[in-house]
Each structure stands twice: as C-alpha cells, then as structure tokens.
Amino acid sequence: MEEDAVLDRLGERVTSLTGARSLNELAALAVAEVRQIRDAEYICFYLQDPGGERLRMFAQHGFTPEEQEEAERTAHERHPGQVVRTRRVLHVADVQSDPQASLSDRKRRHEIRSRLFLPIESEGQCIGTMGMGSVHPHHFSPHQVALLGVLCHLIGVMHRNLWRLEALEQRVAEVRRQQQELEDLSAPIAELGKGVLVVPIIGWMTPERVDRLTEKLLVGARERRARAVLLDLTGLAGEDGGALPLLTRIGASLRLLGVRCLLCGLSPRLAWRAAEQQVELGVVFSSLGQALQAAQGLTS
Fold it and tell me: Would you say residue 211 lies in a domain?
C-alpha cells in the first residue's frame, strides 16, 4: 500500500518536473523526488559534458564538498561511468560482494552497503545517471528500482525538452539581435554639423519600431545636445498614410525636449494622404539639402 501511494505521488510530481527551466533546477527536483521514493545517505545526479568524458554532478544529497569533488573526479572510472557506457541499471544489493567497493568508497563518511545507479537516456543516448548509496544492505526493493527507472525516463524526456527550449531561446535571441541590427541600419542616427541629427528612414514604420526609434532619438538628442532632428523619408515604405500619425508622435516627443523635428523626402502620394487625413507634420522640405540648411540655421 505504501509503494502504491508512492506511485500515485510520482504521477503527481510529473507536473513539477515539467516546470523546470534549467538543468540545475531539473536535477534538484529529481533528487527531491528520489528521496520521496527511497531515501538514502547518498544521492547524486550526474550528466555527461557534451563532447567529453567528464561526468558532472548537477545535484546531490548527503555529500560533503570534499566527497562531491572526489566523486565527480573519479565518476567516469567508477560505477557512474560504467552505467553511462553500458546503459544498464547497476544494482549492488550488498557492497561486500562488489569488487569496486574499495575504489568507490574512498573518502566517504558512511560505509556504503548497497548501491544503485540508473541510466538517464535522451534521444537514444545515455546522457547521465542517477546514483544512490545506503548504509543498509538490500536497501532498494525491485518495486522501488522500477519506480526510480520511470523517474529517470521522465528526467530524460525533460532533459531533451530543456535542450530544445534552450536552442529555441538562443534562436529567438539571435533573431532579435539581427532584427535590432537591421533596425539600426534602416534608421541610423548621424550627426551632421553641431546640434543637428539626421535619420534616414528606410522600410516600414510600425508602432513598435517608432517607439524604439523615438527612445533612441530622445536619448541621442539629449546626449549630443541637439537642437534639430531631420527625418529623411525618401526610403519610407508604404504609401497608405499609416505611418503619418506615427511620425507626428516622434515630432511631439522631440518638441518636449526643445528639439525641432524637420521632415524631407515626402512622396507626393504621402503628401496627399497627409492633407486628406489632416495630419500636421510640421516643417517639411522637398530635399535633404534644403532641410539640412534650415536645420543648421536653427542651431547657429
């Protein structure tokens, strides 16, 4: 009955394992769940370093810092490494009959009498092992070993998902970085003359892009003590007039800092849309040269 209750609890704890957002968090949750199934003096969670033969202990219970350092240093030559290589459960019911006992128990406070190591597999490869050591012989029943095997299977699935999530997050971060680089290239801020900033607008203007550009302009105008900002709309994409209200937001924000916003390069169709929508764009010039000359006059 007690083992049935443990099995029920294992099903409930699957949700907690799926909540892990890092390998360290997954390892800590796994060790805690192992203790619910069968506690022991020593519990360790090893994962193999990618591309190497070193086994790293991500989480543990019962080890002193010195014991953990020694166990991790020799893990690949001992039972943990054997389980990773063979991908088989290693259950030593009585360590006194184990030929590796003297090697495995060096620098341990407790004399281990029974030992259990289970493989952790992900996508057809053994990536680590969950190990336990008890001072009592025959400490792990077949039913408990089976439950722990199920837990290790779940850990393998979660490990795979975490790696995929991490890869996805890295990809998203890379896409955002590239998007930011493109935005910087499509709206670079240049200083032409004292107190005059020039920004050529290239591509589509979205509310999000306008917000980021406005923030950059406000910071740049203050840092460079600009008196005028010139927006060159020659490369602006879209002629449906949707960008016009967004451009007025930029100008209004700059005016609050005492900075004039000048426009040039407005296409005939956008000029017609501005008149149709009664959008007040402020001072507009037909060419960049005229706008630049006017802006320099404001700062002289």
Answer: yes
